[in-house]
């Protein structure tokens, strides 16, 4: 199982500084939350041109961009051009899944399809033949630091049973305990923001998460 550190920042300086910290974890991946204030109430940093400068500084890091935005079709190309390896889009906001997949293919990238806790997991099933990556959000879309919703464990189990070859990521409220539960339920990846970056020693917190799922 993989642990990816999550950056949830109000500005570019914060995103750059936390990326510099995350590079020390040697995870190979950094997940960045991009929230537009419409799909969720808060607003975070989200400039693909500035991502390009971070990518240039850390060319070996794979960036995963979580678009909690309306109309992701309008911005996905810019994020791939800015250096994203994988872009996460929400089922609740997309209108043209084929376009998203085509843009990803053009840039040698990946698209992950996400659902919020309130969305029935079976709505993902029509997309399991075209998408390989899925995210089940374990908290309401928005700010970091929320508590893991235990009811999503059943969604992970259901999706794993119905799509055995899918890669499943769980994001939100990740601690050593909830990471273990997500793994047992069938998740392949957990993404964590506050447990890591809210710690006095982020690298140690990241290692604790890895140790909990070893």
Write the layout of secondary structure elements.
Blueprint: E1 2-7, H1 12-23, E2 29-35, H2 48-57, E3 62-68, H3 76-81, E4 84-90, H4 97-106, E5 110-115, E6 133-137, H5 152-162, E7 167-171, H6 176-185, E8 189-192, H7 194-197, H8 202-212
Parallel strand pairs: 1-2, 1-8, 2-3, 3-4, 4-5, 5-6, 6-7, 7-8
Helix pairs in contact: 6-8
Overall geometric form: globular
Helix and strand element order: EHEHEHEHEEHEHEHH
Number of E-state strands: 8
If helices are DSSP runs of H or I spanning 4 or more residues, what is the number of helices? 8
Looking at the overall shape, the CATH architecture is: Alpha-Beta Barrel
Q: How would you write the strand order of the largest sheet?
A: 1-2-3-4-5-6-7-8
Q: What characterizes the major β-sheet? A: 8 strands, parallel, barrel
In short:
The protein is of the alpha/beta class and 214 residues long. The protein has helices at residues 12-23, 48-57, 76-81, 97-106, 152-162, 176-185, 194-197, 202-212, and strands at residues 2-7, 29-35, 62-68, 84-90, 110-115, 133-137, 167-171, 189-192. The termini are close together.
Please provide a written account of the structure.
With 214 residues, this protein is an alpha/beta fold. The protein is built from eight helices and eight strands, in the order E-H-E-H-E-H-E-H-E-E-H-E-H-E-H-H. It has one domain (2-212): TIM Barrel (Alpha-Beta Barrel). The protein has helices at 12-23, 48-57, 76-81, 97-106, 152-162, 176-185, 194-197, 202-212; strands at 2-7, 29-35, 62-68, 84-90, 110-115, 133-137, 167-171, 189-192. The chain has an eight-stranded parallel beta barrel with strand order 1-2-3-4-5-6-7-8, surrounded by five helices. Strand 2 (29-35), helix 2 and strand 3 form a beta-alpha-beta unit. The model has no long low-confidence stretch (mean pLDDT 96).
């Amino acid at each position: 199982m993989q642990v990816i550190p999550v950056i949830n920042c109000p500005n570019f300086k914060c995103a750059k500084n936390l990326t510099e910290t995350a590079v020390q974890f040697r995870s190979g991946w950094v997940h960045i939350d991009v929230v537009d204030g419409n799909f969720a109430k808060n607003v975070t940093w989200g400039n693909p041109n500035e991502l390009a400068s971070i990518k240039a500084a850390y060319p070996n890091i794979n960036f995963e961009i979580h678009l909690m935005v309306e109309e992701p079709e309008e911005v996905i190309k810019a994020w791939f051009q800015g250096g994203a390896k994988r872009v996460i889009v929400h089922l609740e906001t997309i209108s043209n899944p084929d376009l998203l997949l085509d843009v990803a293919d053009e840039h040698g990238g990946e698209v992950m399809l996400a659902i919020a806790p309130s969305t029935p997991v079976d709505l993902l099933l029509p997309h399991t033949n075209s998408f390989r990556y899925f995210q089940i959000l374990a908290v309401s879309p928005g700010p970091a630091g929320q508590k893991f919703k235990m009811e999503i464990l059943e969604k992970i189990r259901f999706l794993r049973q119905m799509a055995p070859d899918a890669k499943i990521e769980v994001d939100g409220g990740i601690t050593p305990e909830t990471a273990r539960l997500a793994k047992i339920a069938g998740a392949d990846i957990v993404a964590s923001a506050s447990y890591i970056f809210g710690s006095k020693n982020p690298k140690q917190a990241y290692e604790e998460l890895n140790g909990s799922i070893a």
